[in-house]
Structures are given as C-alpha cells and as structure tokens.
Amino acid sequence: PALGRFPHEAAAFDEATGITYLTEDTSDSAIYRHLPDHRTKPFVGGELQALKVSSKDRFRLSEGPKVGDAFNVEWVSVADPQALKASTRDQAHNLGAAFLSRGEGAWLSEGHVYICSTDGGPNRRGQLYRLDILSDGLDRLTLVAQAESEDSFANPDNITVSPWGDVFLAEDGAAPNGVRVLKPDGSLHHFARNALNGGKSEIAGICFSPDGKWLFLNLQWEGLTLAITGPFTV
User: Fold this and answer.
1) Residues in contact with 20: Cβ distance below 8 Å, sequence separation at least 6, in sequence order
2) CB 185 within 8 Å of CB 177
3) What are the beta bridge partners of residue 102?
4) What string of DSSP letters covers 99-116?
5) Rg of the chain over CA atoms, in angstroms?
6) CA separation, residue 68 to residues 129, 144, 216 (Å)
7) Each residue's pLDDT tens digit, 41-71
8) Do β-strands 224-229 and 214-219 pair in parallel, antiparallel, or remain unpaired?
9) Whether residue 186 has pLDDT greater than 90
C-alpha cells in the first residue's frame, strides 16, 4: 500500500537509500518515488512523491523536448496514495507534477535512474530519460534519446544497464521487435532482432548476470527465456 495505487509498471530500487523509483503505464502518467520511514524497511510506511519540473507546472515530458534537454526537478508529496477520492496521478498533476506518456522500463545504475516513455516523442516511438540523483537534493532529468525516425528504436519497454555502462532497450512495438543499445557517447546501435514468429513478441525481463557475461531476456508471447553469451560489442 505504501507504494501507491496506480497502473504500476517498473520499479528501480536504491539499496543505499531505500528509495524506490516507480513508473506508471498510462497516457497521462507521472513519475514517482517512495521515501521509506526507515531505510531497512523500504516498503513499509513512508511517503509517495511525484516528479515536478522546477518552475514548469504540469510540464509534458513526452511532447516537445529535444535530446540533450535537461531539467531541474523537485518532488511533490501525494496526500492520498491509496487514491480513495482522486486518482494518484490526478493528485500529482494538481500539484504541478510532470506528465509522461506511458512510463515503462526503469533501471538504476551508478546514481542514475533511466526511465522509458514507450510512446513519447515526435513520432510516438519512444523516449529515454535519465534522472540524475544529486547530493544537493535538486535532481536533474535529461532526455538522452528519442526515436526521431523509423531507423531508431521502436517503443522501448524493459531496459537494463550493462556493467560497462551501455543501456540495452527491449522493444515492444511493431514487428520485428529487437534490442537496441545506447552507448555512453549517445550513439544508438542494433544488437538483436527477434526472428521467431515474425518478431511480433514483446521482449521483456532483460538483465545481465552480475559478472556481465550473460544477458537474459524473455519472449513474452512464446513464454521463452533466452540466455545470451558475450562478448557484447556493437
């Protein structure tokens, strides 16, 4: 109950602080975080907050921003996370929280939370934001990638970050779905394509083994889990 009532999608948990970052899969979603009362009991009690772009009430993150645009952000507290009288996102937006179209994958890595808008951007083929968790309490949100053309990614959903800093994006769009890789220099590369049954199945649950030697992913419709060995060069 402490994490709120809304169409939950992904959660990225920070072991150092006990904070959980949450996405919401709906067209007018918000980005949330849960602050626990005690770090050692991260899912008991606490406070649910939503991301707000500083000095920009109800800013629409999925419409207009360009790659490289960065925003200082703050967090507003949702009074009734159980949504007994009003939806959680309506409460958040009434406090000025930003809109994100269909928040999907989220992954925490080295003080950054990567967040997908699966149908955001100019072509509604997706965006990838990076939330930088800053020590001064004023976090920063940067648009690091978005689909500008059909040659780019298509509707990123589940994501993971490799031990060497590449972001792997699993697609959930029109066939054939695949996996794209965003390098630290901002370049985007093809990594894999789903060749089974025309590639219609969503690729889900993508993650690395701790040593970075194996990449695991699921083909949702077929109910298959694949284990891929490296080297992972693209």
Assistant:
1) 3, 11, 12, 13, 14, 33, 34, 42, 43
2) no
3) none
4) BBSSEEEEEEETTEEEEE
5) 17
6) 10, 6, 30
7) 999 899 999 999 999 999 999 999 999 999 9
8) antiparallel
9) yes
